Amino acid sequence: xxxxxxxxxxxxxxxxxxxxxxxxxxxxxxxxxxxxxxxxxxxxxxxxxxxxxxxxxxxxxxxxxxxxxxxxxxxxxxxxxxxxxxxxxxxxxxxxxxxxxxxxxxxxxxxxxxxxxxxxxxxxxxxxxxxxxxxxxxxxxxxxxxxxxxxxxxxxxxxxxxxxxxxxxxxxxxxxxxxxxxxxxxxxxx
Length: 190
Fold this sequence. Notes:
Elements: H1 9-18, E1 22-27, H2 34-44, E2 48-51, H3 52-63, H4 70-84, E3 89-92, H5 98-110, E4 114-121, H6 125-134, H7 147-152, E5 163-166, H8 172-188
Parallel strand pairs: 1-3, 1-4, 2-3, 4-5
Helix pairs in contact: 2-8, 3-4, 4-5
């Protein structure tokens, strides 16, 4: 029995226009709202969801390693496999330095895919700190950073085009709606 797949006309037109998978490259500091939005986009675009925190914690747990860049390297390979299969992919990571940002873009280019850089931030320092101090990890065994860790984290200024979503003083729904609209505008200019 075949399955009936329903698309909105707008989504179908976007997919037909691109005729290639999309790598959604999420970046931002911890507790900015990045993972929440990345998961929503993964659902919306029926995309494979790759979370660096999960990959790195898995390497720590299974291999007893002090992980440096291995989580990113492994994730680039998994993303490549899925893009070659025609699957959309969402990468969810802090992606704090220009080198990793460029590497993610290269993954898309090398696999004939489109990519969209998305930076998620929380410009309200008080709100951001409260999120850091009250959140719980949904990755088993992952030690979350504290506020001092986040403030001292290396995070380069951006050198490439990106969508910026500031989640400060907004609900998840408002931030997601804004992101969907910006993705739609971006895809229309491709």
